[in-house]
Specification:
This protein is mostly beta strands. The protein is built from no helices and eleven strands. The strands form two sheets. Strands 2, 4, 5, 6, 9, 10 and 11 form a seven-stranded mixed β-sheet that branches. It is globular, with a radius of gyration of 14 Å.
């Protein structure tokens, strides 16, 4: 069992920055691929970025060059640095942990709201 707690969301103006954090507890963090997803009103949840246990990253085209995902295995935490935010980045952002040893074993955080508006 893994518990994920996100923080760092909020209201920001277009062009601004935010950093999301996701603290994991309850299992061995380093065996989980970590990811950030988002869901805007009326839309499906979509992948924003993920980072493998070896630090390899992957990003959605819409955030490439603006967002950076990173992980600190010593702190059991994954981060999402978001720069040059756009109104279309407005969504609830969810942290995800996918066990690399057990197929389809996923955990989700409760989500944190990010609103980009002037």
């Amino acid at each position: 069992q893994v518990q994920l707690v996100e923080s760092g969301g909020g209201l920001v103006q277009p062009g601004g920055s935010l950093r999301l954090s996701c603290a994991a507890s309850g299992s061995i963090f380093r065996i989980y691929r970590m990811g950030w997803y988002r869901q805007a009103p009326g839309k499906q949840r979509e992948l924003v970025a993920h980072i493998t246990t070896k630090g390899i990253t992957n990003y959605a085209d819409s955030v490439k060059g603006r967002f950076t995902i990173s992980r600190d295995n010593a702190k059991n935490t994954v981060y999402l640095e978001m720069n040059s935010l756009l109104p279309e980045d407005t969504a609830v952002y969810y942290c995800n942990a996918a066990n690399i040893l057990v197929s389809n074993l996923n955990y989700w955080g409760q989500g944190t709201q990010v609103t980009v508006s002037s």
